[in-house]
Amino acid sequence: NAWRSICCCVSEMKCAGLPGGEVNESGGGGTPVQIEQWALGLRLGMWKLRSAKEGRDCVTDEGLPLRTLCDLKGRQVWEYVTQDEEPASTKAKLEACERARDEYVRKRRDEGVKHSADELLRIQQCGPNYMDVVRVRKKGKQKRPASSTKEEHQDTPVDRNDFDEAVSGGLDFYQQLQMEDGHWPGDYGGPMFLMPGLVITCYVTGTMGTVLGDARVTEMARYLRNQQNPDGGYGLHIEGHSTMFGTVLTYVSLRLLGAKASDPHCARARKWILLHGGATLIPSWGKFWLSVLGCFDWDGLNPVPPEVWLLPYSGKSGIGWAHPGRFWCHCRMVYLPMSYIYGARITGECTELVGEIRKEIFLKPYEEVDWNKARNECAKEDLYYPHPLLQDALWYTLYKLEYMLLPGRPLHFLRKKALAETIKHITYEDENTRYVCIGPVNKVMNMLCRWHEDPQGDAFKMHASRIPDYLWVAEDGMKMQGYNGSQCWDTTFAVQAIVSTGEASRVMECVRRAADYIESTQVREDCPGDLESWYRHISKGAWPFSTRDHGWPISDCSSEGLKATLALEPLVGEFISDDRLDDCVNVILSYQNKTGGWATYENTRSFAQLELINPAETFGDIVIDYDYVECSSACITAIAAYLRRQRGGGEWRSRHPRATLERALRDGKRFVESIQKADGSWYGSWGVCFTYAAWFGCEALEACDGVLGTDSRERLERCADFLLERQRPDGGWGESYLSCELKQYSQLPEGEPSHVVNTAWAILALIKAKQHLRDPRPLHRAARALLDQQLPCGDWPQQHISGVFNRNCMITYANYRNLFPLWALGEYRSHVLDLGGK
User: Which of 384, 425, 604, 740 has the most CB atoms at less than 10 Å from its CB?
Assistant: First the structure.
């Protein structure tokens, strides 16, 4: 095995263009002893996760030194290193990584398991043989008395010794994954349309070698090959059915990364593309990226005119309600650089490779494609949000007017003015996020815009330095994440989970590090300038999703940051001042809409009717920032916790009057009640799906009852009944991501075990709904289901994907499999076991 691992690594280094030697078909270019001596002497390269200051020098060859507000705390980047540890340790880790890669390929091929398990992170943090460490021996499987049936046994409380061992073992394992700066790292990948934008941008700018480099190119290609579906296509996300969007962009990416057209993966993908109608049927975002590369004519893309940024913003003008400054910020920040690129017609050089791709992805010769017809074509596999007739009429009108704005035409002065306006806002976004940007899509688009502005400029190089922030390596390869990570979000949840177990005092070093990270990540200032003119919300006092350098404030992240801070105070003292906590409460209050609910990054700025102009066929509800049960619940529970802190301290220490906070709670409660469905459920927009929303909905109502003295028993019991009707025979819950797409509860296939994350969310919801006071038996069965699936090392298995955005695209939250079972078991312990289980 050691020899095989060495040869595989040498082969990989050769493929990546790294130091190595010729490797023959049997796997070696010399005797095993010669190769092993050479490899260990050179200290074979491997991927290592760097965080905070340790990763300061981890920038691309094209990049400049990083800008930071927080000494880079939270930055998590994978670096390919060749000299790091002692050879024996390096060899053991290399062997473990290779076994993990082989096992992933086997499971995907034989068992249909599509999700990686973050094995490379675990090998680094816990050691190459971490699975051999036994922390949990019984895994909750207590011996059934001879006098009881299996069903009667499942309805009894979990054995206390088994339970304590499981919680302690789970906590001991999970604290190993924490980084030195206090955050928990993890895979935040899943969407398949992110990496192609980066690859195309690097190809067009001529920086494949300097921005990506050979080692990254090798791992990216590994990832793309691993994610191919049995039919040869690729999905919108890793667990999705094959789509034209995923398949064409992945095919193009593999070709740009060096794969030949005859490569088996490329051949199968190309066959899928042609059998399903060719690349003219790719959705609009795919048409855009192909146009940038030079494999699609700009006339085949519905207009993305930058001139909309010149419209009046004021609602009094009427048209101002459709100003892009009123869009949901992710939509706004994507279509901002997209409009610049479209308006400037930024297109790469038509190289020999681009010419080959043109011939490979269409049903007819490139020169004969009807681009006007292609504008509104979309494969049925991709069509989640069909264009309304009104939108088609709008695009047709703009399409006919577009030629008037081109160089030499009468209205070209407007195009020049619009491009100047959009690059101004692009620059503002870059500077205020230290060139991280709000997300991966606008990150690479902004990078392309700044290159177009000045190919040798510092702005492009600053962008290049932050590319590693978005790349994550697991046993399935290197992927591009949906953000620069979920560091702050996961850490605030992890803190609350650890506190709930009652064992926080046993892991105080872990707790202190987490407190340090939370303290350092709070945003301390608003963005500069007139916020309204930049279409930005206040941010002083908020917490972001990932890092302070990223800095975009979010309602639920701010709320979970506040709750985690308050949960930590009894353990570490008051480590964030009252003024800063008041700043956070001020941000949370400012986010509340007239509906009583809360949206994500900003207030809702326009009307839902704007969704009629949603041009993205693959995503739903993207144009404005809607109210969500998750965001509303997080804000409600944060305000309730803050009120309890103020009341418990005797003297009122907040600058926010009690009446203001209580009024916000009453309005928020009414909103949460208004969106509860007749069957007692809530629809989840950021997690899968009804189990996730049930936890938030029940938590919000229970918190209001505790602070305001209201009575939500009937609503809580309805939600509990909804969950209990869907409890599976093994005691857990298993909800498919299809719930998000179909907006109705969808079970995982029969025969699969329940999902530990869904089960944990259901337990948390049921306890908030006071199910333990009605009938604790379902909770006993659910807790036993979590313990039965726990691994001997204390970890829990990675199962189906559990995050979602825009209704239709799934995303990974790798930390959920650890923190939510711990959290649920902690609540079960304090509300059920500690009360005798009756």
Answer: 740
Q: How far apart are CA 48 and CA 39, in angstroms?
A: 18
Burial, 603: exposed, middle or buried (Cβ in 10 Å; 0-12, 13-18, 19+)? middle
> What was the pLDDT predicted at 2?
42
**Is the distance from CB of 68 to CB of 434 less than 8 angstroms?**
yes
The model's pLDDT over 726-746, given as tens digits with 9 standing for 90+, comes to: 999 999 999 999 999 999 999
The first and second tokens of residue 823, run together, are: 């959290």
What residues contact 535, with CB distance under 8 A and at least 6 apart?
313, 325, 326, 332, 425
Q: How many CB atoms lie within 10 A of CB 132?
A: 9
Tokens of 372: 């006007």
**Plot region of 383 (φ>0 → left; ψ -120 to 50 → alpha; else → beta):** beta
Q: Which SS3 state, helix, strand or coil, does residue 220 take?
A: helix
- Looking at residue 57, its amino acid is D
Q: How many CB atoms lie within 10 A of CB 401?
A: 13
Please give the radius of gyration of the chain, using alpha carbons only, rounded to the nearest integer. Answer: 27
Burial 85-114, CB ≥16 within 10 A → b, else e? eeeeebbbbbbbbbbbbeebeeebeeeebb
Under 8 Å between Cβ of 49 and 185: yes
Measured CA distances, 648 to 565, 589, 641, 705 (Å)? 16, 21, 10, 17
b/e code 213-229 from CB counts within 10 Å (16+ = b)? bbbbbbbbbbbbbbbbb
Tokens of 334: 């994507």
329 within 8 A of 552, measured Cβ to Cβ: yes
Active site residues: 556
CB atoms within 10 A of CB 573: 8
Exposure of 768 by Cβ count < 10 A (0-12 exposed, 13-18 middle, 19+ buried)?
A: buried
* pLDDT single digits (tens) 208-244: 999 999 999 999 999 999 999 999 999 999 999 999 9
C-beta separation of 808 from 620 below 8 A: yes
For 15-51, the pLDDT digits (tens) are: 444 333 333 333 333 444 434 433 443 345 789 999 9
**4 CB burial (10 A radius; 0-12, 13-18, 19+):** middle
Taking CA atoms, 636 is separated from 350, 490, 699, in Å, by 55, 19, 9
Question: Strand 242-243 vs strand 471-474: parallel, antiparallel, or unpaired?
Answer: unpaired
Cβ(590)–Cβ(666) below 8 Å: no
In terms of phi and psi (left: phi > 0; alpha: psi -120 to 50; beta: otherwise), the region of 37 is alpha
Q: Is the pLDDT score of 14 beyond 50? A: no
Helix count and strand count (H, E) for the chain: 31, 8
One-letter amino acid for residue 307 of the chain? E
What is the pLDDT confidence band of residue 152, given thresholds at 50, 70 and 90? Answer: low
In angstroms, the CA 136 to CA 409 distance is 74
Which of 419, 454, 253, 249 is closest to 341 using CA atoms? Answer: 419
Distance CA 509, CA 501 (A): 16
Q: How far apart are CA 830 and CA 499, in angstroms?
A: 11
Please provide residue 655's backbone torsions phi and psi, each rounded to the nearest 5 degrees: -80, -5
Task: State which amino acid sits at residue 27.
Answer: G
Tokens 């996961």 locate to 490
Could you say which DSSP state residue 598 is in?
A: B
CA atoms within 13 A on the CB side of 830: 15
Tell me the backbone φ, ψ of residue 640, rounded to 5 degrees. Answer: -60, -45
Nearest to 494 by CA among 513, 522, 514, 509: 514
User: Which stretch of DSSP H or E encloses residue 51?
Assistant: strand 46-51
Tokens of 10: 């040498």
Joined tokens for residue 273: 């593309």
Do the Cβ atoms of 755 and 808 come closer than 8 Å? no
Partners of residue 474 on adjacent β-strands: 477
Question: 407, exposed or middle or buried, with CB in 10 Å at 0-12, 13-18, 19+?
Answer: exposed
